[in-house]
Structure formats: structure tokens, C-alpha cells
């Protein structure tokens, strides 16, 4: 499985292979995580590093403490990143303008109401596509101005499902 890990301005492409093998930006290494909960051990090339990982905001964002250093990181699998990129359009500080269907599918649930204030990372629409439920999330904060889809609607890729205005 492929992940994209962003630390600061740098994006690392991480492929998790069989047998604990991992490639980071094309360089293969042996890595793994041991332990449960926020305190774990990062196993990297035969060495163990204590790692504290705590969720930090929207899905995929983490605060990491390792070897005396603190990092904020975002880790998204390839599919989630593609869906986020397709539904968010260009990132703007004023929040999302629309949520679009990232692929053809069936709207299962609308998680918001007109006039509702939403936060970055909040679930907006649940749709079924490729036999999987997909949660479409807000890229930033805003106020729901219009809901253009209903449960049971079959939608095409790019269909606007929900519109927002700046808070």
C-alpha cells in the first residue's frame, strides 16, 4: 500500500511491501511499529526508537515525538489523498467552497444541514462507490449554504453535492 507522509513542506512517498519491507522515496528499508496505543516503538533497520504518536486534528494528522524531537505529520493512503484532492479543489484559507463526488456512486447519507457550521475534517457526505463506503470531509471550516444531493441519488464524478460559504 502507498502512503504520502507530509512533514513540514516535504512529502515522502512510502510504499509498504511484504515482510516488513518499506520504500521511502524509492529507497528500500526494513521498518515496523511495535506496541499499542500512543506509545510505540519504531523499528527501523534493526534499531528501535520510542515513538509517541497522537492524533492532531483532521483525519491523518499526527503529532509525533521521537528521539527528543516533535513533528506534526500528515499520513494519507493513496486512495484517501486522491479523494481529498478531488473533493477539495484548490486549498483556500477561507474554507471549502464545494464538496464534489470524487467518482460515480450512490449518495447514502448527508451528514450536515443547511446553515450548519462545519470544521475542517468533518464528515459531510457518505457515498458508496466501487462497493465501498466513502466519507467525504470538509477541507476547511465553513457554513453549509446549499445541499444539492439527497440519499439515494446516483451521481457522476464531479457532481457538486454540498456548497459552503466562508464563516
Overview of this structure, please?
This protein is mainly beta. It is built from one helix and 16 strands. The protein is elongated and about 55 Å long. The termini are far apart. Mean pLDDT is 84; it is low at 90-96.
What topology does this entry show?
Elements: E1 2-7, E2 10-16, E3 21-24, E4 27-34, E5 39-44, E6 47-55, E7 61-66, E8 69-77, H1 78-88, E9 98-100, E10 105-110, E11 117-118, E12 123-129, E13 132-137, E14 142-147, E15 154-155, E16 160-165
Distance between the ends: 37 Å
Q: State the secondary-structure class.
A: mainly beta
Q: How many individual β-strands?
A: 16
Q: How many helices? A: 1
Low-confidence segments: 90-96
Largest sheet: 8 strands, antiparallel, barrel
Strand content bin: over 45%
Q: What sort of overall outline do the alpha carbons produce when their principal axes are compared?
A: elongated
As a percent range, the share of helical residues equals under 10%
Elements, N to C (H/E):
EEEEEEEEHEEEEEEEE
Amino acid at each position: 500500500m502507498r502512503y504520502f507522509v507530509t512533514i513540514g513542506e516535504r512529502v515522502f512517498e512510502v510504499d509498504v511491501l511484504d515482510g516488513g519491507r518499506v520504500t521511502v522515496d524509492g529507497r528500500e528499508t526494513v521498518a515496523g511499529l511495535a506496541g499499542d496505543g500512543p506509545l510505540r516503538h519504531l523499528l527501523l533497520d534493526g534499531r528501535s526508537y520510542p515513538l509517541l504518536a497522537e492524533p492532531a486534528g483532521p483525519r491523518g494528522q499526527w503529532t509525533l515525538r521521537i528521539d527528543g524531537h516533535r513533528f506534526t505529520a500528515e499520513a494519507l493512503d493513496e486512495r484517501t489523498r486522491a479523494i481529498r484532492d478531488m473533493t477539495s479543489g484548490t486549498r483556500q484559507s477561507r474554507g471549502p467552497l464545494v464538496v464534489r463526488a470524487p467518482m460515480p456512486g450512490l449518495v447514502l447519507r448527508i451528514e450536515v444541514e443547511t446553515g450548519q457550521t462545519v470544521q475542517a475534517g468533518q464528515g459531510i457526505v457518505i457515498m458508496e462507490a466501487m462497493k465501498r463506503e466513502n466519507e467525504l470531509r470538509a477541507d476547511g471550516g465553513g457554513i453549509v449554504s446549499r445541499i444539492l444531493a439527497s440519499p439515494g441519488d446516483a451521481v457522476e464524478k464531479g457532481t457538486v453535492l454540498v456548497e459552503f460559504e466562508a464563516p
